[in-house]
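Chain particulars:
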Amino acid sequence: MTITATEVIQRTILREVRVGKVARLGKSDIMSGIAKSVCAGSVLIAEELIAGDEYGSPHLHGGAEQVILQYPEEHYAAWQEEFPESAERLRAGGFGENFVACGFNESNICIGDIVEVGEARLQVSMPRQPCFRLNHRFEQPTMARRVQQTGRTGWYYRVLKPGVVGSGDTLRIVERPYPEWTISRIQQFLYVDTGNVEAMATLAELDLMAPLIRDLFRKRLQSLEIEDWSSRLVEGPSDPVPTLAPVATSGGKEWLSLRVKSMTEESPDVRSFTLVAKDGGRLPPSEPGAHIKLKLPNGLERHYSLCENSQGHSYKIAVGLAKESRGGSRWIHESLRLGTTLLASVPSNSFPVAPNAQLHVMFAGGIGITPFLSMIQHFRETGARFKLFYLARSEQTAPFLDELGNLRASEVRFHFTNGDSTRRLDIGAIMNALDETAHVYCCGSALLMDAVRHAPAKLPASNYHFEAFAPIANADHARPFTVQLASSGKSFAVSARQSILEVLRDNAIDVPSSCESGSCGTCVVTYSQGEVDHHDVCLTAGARKSQLAVCVSRAVTDSITLEL
């Protein structure tokens, strides 16, 4: 529903604009920006924040989809009646809202509504999801749950046009693309009619709703399971579930016993798997870019990136079937079944998000998209700026294309060659346009990583991070050699199918490791004799003259001496 410049669907007066600094929340140790004060004059609304406003948990609040919170002032009378002992706190501004006004509420505001106020132009992006901080704010242990149950949550705006606003300005709804999708109706499917598959499918594709909420419906549609809200509504799970105890195996390592809960065909050659604790319980959480190691029944150990940031409920991995599989991906594709039990390591992270980058630039090649899925989830939640360049042979072979297609054009660029080598992405032009505030991540083939690494750029080496596909490059063409230890003089044979790291482990030589794909540098050791065929992506050319990553690199000469 689009109207002319002189028409208005709804209007009301902005009574107060509020911003707040981070401070301790009540009697708790929580730092929060929920206590906001009235702005005496006009205030600038920028693209991702209101001037002077702060968030105690920027990974949960704020960002491009949650710039402004509006809360209907008329709700406070109902709250005061329900919680009279907290009446002094249950007044305008109590819920941490930036806009205080009457007239607009969850029943007459719709997702996608475009609102003009002062010089700014805003758009309704999502309903507020209440959290346990409200319990501390009002000293009522059930407050967050009651807010969710009543639907008196408020809503967020994204900023379409920055500008100055102030108390007394008129809020005007001038465009309503989805008149059927009020905040209240969306909340009905979020929290009440949670099994409505038709609504899930529609809301998962509602393009003007914040990705955080769309993804929630998409995951619900795929799993047909309802989320556990307890950790959001109560500080910690209402019925705490202990972390699953690792299982000690040979070598003193700790493993988790996981069960395959679901499998999904993401493309002709890629399957994703959701893994849960075999006997129930909470799993160790993971961070963006993390991976786990699987111990397969055929004796192989393989590392796989986690496609989601786990809060302890499950781990999701995606496995591409390698054309020249050495037994890992082939076994998973041919033998792994629902209910199968696997041993897995606790998540570790050799491909973390750079905390201080102002722009995150990701290059993904095919199945190399997997670690970036968890990063994008993190960037969406925090509002961090990012760009993804996703390279694949064709749309048909690219996994997770539908999920990534919901990103804005400014955030993702798909590049499909269709087998034509002349249609390569101009990586040099992309890299040359970046400045030192950007951080570059690359996961894909050796060809892609070399192109990114050697492209002309203004970035220091510390602003690059690479994740390799496989633990050993060109294994079918590798030759055997001997590795000798300088300290003891012992020597061990390394076959064409083994890595130096595997041989050292088999002979009780302890070398720390993490990614085992040549990316992180944990297993780098010094060598003094022999010539090395380096396959890592973590060492500089200078360092390679005396160091090697024993997880992937091999000897060119018949033997090599390690300073171990």
